[in-house]
Structure of N-acetyltransferase domain-containing protein:
Amino acid sequence: MANSDARIRKFQPDDLKLAQFAISKANLSKLAVANYTASTHWLALSLWVGLSSAFIQYMGWWPADTVLSYLQPFPAFACMALPIIFYIDWHNRPYFEANAEEAIRGADLVDISEYYSRSPSSGFWLLEFGERFIGLLALDASLDSQNTAPAQKSSEKRKKGTSSVATIRHFFVDEPYRPTEIQEDLLKHAIMFAFEGDDKLERIEVVGSSMSTYAEKAYKKLGFRVVKEIKRIGVLRWKVELYSLDRSTWQSTL
């Protein structure tokens, strides 16, 4: 019988393509969430119904006495939905595509094993259920953990050591497994590893938004707090916020 236990293991060089795919998926899946959230917002729905009603009135497609006439308004509703959906995607897409490109071009993905071995508090972990990959988390506690420059601008920064501030660069769990809250186990594993790895590490930071509600919930449950709003994105101006977890706060929860 195949092993069906969940496990967390360190990244291996053979996992590179899988990790790159998951990181891209993690960023672009937020676009789908943003588009769905905006499309089902009461403002979008109200605009859709209003435009559709006006179009039906103009075309004279309101139902008459026959049963088939009740089908006449449907094309109008379909036609008016398309431009609204197109506008929402057009407005949301640039930010999420830029984020995905920045993540893939990051210095840490050039040589993952080397990059995350420079500090005893850094790590890149894969979450598996049996033989199935279901998530990953990358925590960077190196001296340049706050650097977000692309690879070609960061190749010379390879000093070993631990910073006082670590950054969670990548965090993803596949959607079917999120209701089990297994993402909290993965996050907890990374936090414990980081703080136990080097006493120099004082806090862990991560950028979060409501487009990853499962991650936000895990951050808050394990003691992260919002320290500042970075910016607002998308058609509905969602918040992008910086979360932080201090060593003292983490130790008080143990």
Observations:
- The mean pLDDT is 90.
- The longest strand covers residues 132-140.
- Residues 164 and 201 are 4 Å apart (CA to CA).
